[in-house]
Amino acid sequence: MHAGRGLLLRSRKGLDEAEASFFASLQSLIRTRARPVPKNFSRICAVDASYRSDRVAAVATETVDGRVVAHGVYTGRFTFPYVPGLFYLHEGPFVTAAVNRLKVRPQLVCFDAHGAAHPRYAGLATICGIVLGIPSIGIASPC
Question: How far is Cα 62 from Cα 138, in angstroms, rounded to an integer?
């Protein structure tokens, strides 16, 4: 099965071929809407999720000038399967919900995920940054 720019999705885990192709194409289109990282910023947020079975907890920690000032937490249940290359559909709703629970919007969000380093140049960090309307970066090791 091919999707978006001819990239092979290794596993669709219950997705129809049309769904996987549509989501991958959407991902490729979204990459052009990413916001640039600001040159000067003091409010930074780091966000990640942890799971056990179908349960997930996402935590966003905001710092201002290096001091932790707030946490946003969201817990829920996965309903969308993990599909390699479409991770944003699996974890994105939870990490964005955690960031949205912060009292003050950060100027930059750091995700434990790929952003522009994704094979389609729009991984979880890029897509969630666009959804949040906040510049973002992905900080992840290569697969």
Answer: 16
Q: Which residue, among 101, 41, 39, 111, has the nearest Cα to 70 in the 3D structure? A: 101
pLDDT, tens digit (0-9, with 9 covering 90-100), for 27-63: 878 777 777 777 888 899 999 999 888 889 999 999 9
Determine the Cα–Cα distance for residues 136 and 55; give it in Å rounded to an integer: 25
Please give the sequence-ordered ranges of beta strands (E in DSSP) within the chain, or none if there are none.
2-3, 7-8, 43-52, 55-64, 67-77, 108-111, 136-138
> Domain spanning 2-138 has what CATH number?
3.30.2170.10
d(CA 134, CA 127) in angstroms, rounded, equals 10
